[in-house]
Design goal:
Subcellular location: Membrane
Number of helices: 12
Radius of gyration: 22 Å
CATH architecture: Up-down Bundle
Strand content: under 5%
Main location: membrane
Keywords: Membrane, Transmembrane, Transmembrane helix
CATH topology: Rhopdopsin 7-helix transmembrane proteins
Largest sheet: 2 strands, antiparallel
Strand order of the largest sheet: 1-2
Number of domains: 1
Mean pLDDT: 76
Order of helices and strands: HHHEHHHEHHHHHH
Pfam family, one: 7tm_1
GO molecular function, one term: olfactory receptor activity
Shape: globular
Helix content: over 70%
Length: about 325
């Protein structure tokens, strides 16, 4: 496959010129470090408050933070390895690539689950407590991870089926495209991803229409409009997440034109379609959610904002308001 040719010959054609994108690499590492810091702070905030650990939307949000952080670390490792043409054993490479593939599907599915949770909370508020239980949360997470594993496991099994056993003992520059040795593997993977993407888009459109319809007839207009904005942001985030599957097809034409243009395009795709969509989750739920933002700010400032009383008042008010409903 052409992506394999790219990875195998990149060192021969660009080893001298790789000093030029050094600034780009440093910039990417700064973005990744900032992203991981914010995510770790939000995970810490989630773990510190029992109230967050009891609500479905915060549990899904925490899963998104964990998955995105692990995905970002592994993707950055692959980027650095490809940049410096560092070779590793094939078996660890397959494990890393499979994990990256699982997490790349898990994030969009979790976004869809978060949209469905908002649909139940806004359109069926009286049934929300009965539907959003610990049992349904466990079942939902199990479904998300099961579906996320289908495509990576299929890719892994197909790779092992067409690869000689001796190849597993070799060393290679690790890349996700390494597992797509045959055209039919890439085509089958693309078909499954397209089907999954269409299904997720249909669900999000359905949720948006239902919330929009409920917003017109409901008394709590502000809550509904905020729910609509959340769904729209999730749809945009989902679009960026799915676009990362198309980046190899965007990059290949530039490989034929100029190698350094190809390298620049790959860095741009990494920032726009990998870093950017995974940075939206903290924005959507970490900063726009009043309860979470108060606790987050308190921990970010190491408790120096004297906002603990305000946090408790806000959380108690929301808990009392929820019980009244």
């Amino acid at each position: 496959m052409q992506n394999l040719d790219i990875n195998n010959s990149l060192s021969n054609k660009t080893v001298v010129n790789f000093s030029k994108p050094y600034t780009q690499m440093v910039f990417v590492q700064i973005l990744v470090s900032l992203f991981l810091y914010v995510n770790c702070l939000m995970i810490y905030t989630f773990l510190k408050k029992e109230m967050f650990r009891e609500e479905t939307r915060y549990i899904l949000f925490a899963q998104t933070l964990l998955v995105d952080s692990a995905f970002m670390v592994l993707s950055d490792v692959l980027l650095i390895g490809g940049h410096y043409q560092y070779v590793i054993h094939t078996i660890p490479c397959l494990i890393i690539c499979t994990a990256v593939a699982v997490m790349s599907v898990c994030t969009p599915l979790t976004l869809v689950a978060m949209c469905l949770e908002r649909y139940v909370a806004i359109c069926m508020p009286l049934r929300h407590a009965d539907i959003s239980t610990s049992r349904t949360r466990f079942q939902g997470l199990l479904i998300i991870w099961s579906i996320s594993s289908i495509i990576p496991l299929f890719t892994l099994v197909a790779y092992l089926a067409v690869t000689p056993s001796g190849a597993l003992l070799s060393y290679t520059v690790c890349s996700v495209e390494l597992m797509l040795r045959k055209d039919w593997q890439a085509q089958a993977r693309a078909i499954i991803l397209q089907f999954l993407f269409v299904l997720m888009i249909i669900i999000i459109i359905f949720v948006y229409i239902k919330i929009m319809t409920a917003a017109r007839a409901a008394s709590s207009e502000n809550k509904k409009s905020k729910g609509l904005r959340t769904v729209i942001l999730h749809a945009f985030q989902l679009f960026l997440c799915v676009m990362q599957f198309l980046t190899p097809y965007i990059e290949m034409p530039f490989w034929k034109v100029d190698v350094m243009v190809f390298v620049n395009v790959r860095y741009s795709n990494f920032i726009v379609f990998i870093i950017a969509p995974h940075c939206l989750s903290p924005l959507i739920y970490g900063l726009r959610d009043e309860k979470f933002f108060l606790v987050l700010r308190h921990h970010a400032m190491c408790g120096l904002d004297n906002g603990k009383l305000k946090i408790n008042q806000t959380l108690n008010f929301n808990r009392h308001h929820k019980c009244q409903r």
